[in-house]
Amino acid sequence: NVESKLNHPNVKELDWVLIRENSEGEYSGVGGRNFTGRGLNNEVAVQSSLFTEKGCERVIRYAFETARQRKRKKVTSVTKSNAQQYGMVLWDEVFERVSKDYPDVETDKWLIDAMAAQFVLHPEELEVVVASNLLADILSDLGSALAGSLG
Questions:
Q1: Strands 44-50 and 128-131
Q2: Is residue 77 a contact partner of residue 108, using CB atoms and an 8 Å limit?
Q3: Is 70 in a helix, a strand, or coil?
Q4: Which superkingdom, per the lineage (predicted)?
Q5: Is 93 in contact with 147 (CB distance < 8 Å)?
Q6: For a Cys staple, 128 with which of 59, 64, 67, 76, CB 3.0–4.6 Å?
Q7: Is residue 48 within 8 Å of residue 31, measured between CB atoms?
């Protein structure tokens, strides 16, 4: 019963589930820094995301199972696959494949920037949202703020 800081006259409650991949993705710790022999102001840092088919399937399947238990059976996948063309494209492919095992669950796919706007402008349309570690981290803070609390 926390009142939202946003005034949505047609929205009586915010009721969605955000499922976050928490063992892979952008926070997997793959990468490093190299400054040996590069000289002053020439440090290089590389941070990579790690997506496995099994890891993607595990969290996506969990999202579908969660959606089956809710009133509106809908899963929305959020990526940035238009710019992250390897790991997040794999995520999209796994989402598409897994969705065929759940014909009773409606699906939707959004890019993260558009989904951030959707959270603010049309939160009533959300049900179960599944995203990678970084993207769901950001969306969980945004969703909490919409409900009037911290992430």
A1: unpaired
A2: yes
A3: coil
A4: Bacteria
A5: no
A6: 67
A7: yes
Name beta bridge partners: 31.
Answer: 47
Q: Express as a percent the part of the chain with pLDDT over 70.
A: 87
CA angle centred on 121, ends 117 and 126, rounded to 5°: 85
- Give the up-direction half-sphere exposure of residue 5: CA atoms within 13 A in the CB hemisphere: 10
Q: Do 88 and 111 touch, CB atoms closer than 8 A?
A: no
Say what the pLDDT of residue 2 is: 55
Give the relative orientation of helices 133-146 and 112-121 as an angle to the nearest 10 degrees: 10
Q: What does the alpha-carbon distance between residue 120 and residue 43 come to, in Å, rounded to a whole number?
A: 39
The residues, ordered by sequence, that sit 6+ positions from 65 with a Cβ below 8 Å of its Cβ are none
Element (H, E) at 130: strand 128-131
Type of residue found at 148: G
pTM of the model: 0.86
Where do the domains of the chain lie, and which CATH numbers do they carry?
Answer: 17-146 (3.40.718.10)
